[in-house]
Every structure is written in C-alpha cells, then in structure tokens.
Amino acid sequence: MHPATGITLKEAQEMYRKYMDAERKVLSNQRYKxxxxxxxxADLKDIVxxxxxxxxxxxxxxxxxxxxxxxxxxxNL
Length: 77
Description:
Structural class: mainly alpha
Strand order of the largest sheet: 1-2
Number of strands: 2
Distance between the termini: 46 Å
Shape: elongated
C-alpha cells in the first residue's frame, strides 16, 4: 500500500491500464460526431502525464524503485 495515498498496487495498476486505454482512444480518434451528438476526448498531454504518474506509483509499490546499498571489496590489494 502506498504510504501517502493508501492506494494498493492492484488499484494503481488498474489506473495505469485506464490511462493506457484512454491514450489509445485519443490516438485513434480525438473527436467524433454521431448525428447531433459530439464527443471530444481529453488532451493527449494530460493523459500521458497521468499515465507516467501511475506508472511511477506502480513501480514504487512493486519495489522496483527501492534504493540498495552495495559493498565493493577490492580483490587486488
């Protein structure tokens, strides 16, 4: 669970998938009209920014961004 937000990895992955889906939809058709109704999707730059943020949260929650200490011992002294 994310310490600041209380979001689980599963929830973060679902949000990331939603942003991926939104990005695909915008890339295929930003605006369309059916009879007298018109739909315009969100800005691609906002979707990409949201997708990157959820990707970062997923990485943080999965431990992929953990800092590790490494010891190096020279062997030729």
